[in-house]
Design goal:
single chain, RibDG_C, globular, 29% helix, 28% strand, alpha/beta, eight-stranded mixed beta sheet, Dihydrofolate Reductase, subunit A, DHFR-like_dom_sf, 178 residues
């Protein structure tokens, strides 16, 4: 059975949108080692339709970039009711309902990274499908942008691991609280 893990770069004020505009100066060897280990453990990606559209367009058009073969070759699952014929290699469409996502999760042996969508993460948490939430909290308040948690039900999480990088970034791992 698969384990769905979500990863976000997040600012102190909860913003996860457009990390390329505020997170780059915090990248260091410590962060890259954690990201590299996570990539090695990953067996598949899970994303929503908007994430799929952005990632597939970028990685298919930039096949010569570092990590392109990783993203282009790994199995990908897209939660969508509108995507019919995905063009990105190794992509499977999963209906946007709890049963279909659970069946996909059961079919994968290992870690499935959920990427790109705070809305999808909130939905997965609400339906008991997310196993782990990994946050790299940056010491910056961005001020505006989509937040990981916006209006919605309370979500209790349990901190299972933490580390502080020399850049001041906190590496935090949470699981849904029992």
């Amino acid at each position: 059975m698969g384990k769905i893990v979500s990863n976000f770069f997040i600012a102190l004020d909860g913003v996860v949108e457009a990390p390329e505009s505020w997170h780059m100066s915090y990248i260091n060897d410590e962060m890259m080692a954690v990201i590299g280990a996570a990539m090695e453990a990953n067996q598949a990606f899970l994303m929503g339709r908007a994430g799929y559209d952005g990632f597939s367009e970028y990685w298919q058009a930039n096949a010569d970039e570092p990590y392109a073969s990783y993203f282009n070759d790994i199995p990908k699952y897209v939660i969508s009711s509108t995507l019919q014929d995905p063009t990105w290699k190794n992509t499977t469409v999963v209906r946007g309902d709890v049963r279909a996502v659970q069946e996909m999760k059961d079919s994968v042996d290992g870690v499935i990274f959920m990427t790109g969508s705070a809305i999808t993460v909130r939905w997965l948490l609400e339906h008991g499908l997310l196993d782990e939430l990994r946050l790299m909290m940056h010491p910056v308040a961005v001020g505006s942008g989509q937040k990981l948690f916006e209006d919605g039900p309370a979500t209790k999480l349990e901190l299972v691991r933490s580390a502080t990088f020399s850049s001041g970034v906190l590496d935090l791992v949470y699981r849904p609280a029992s």
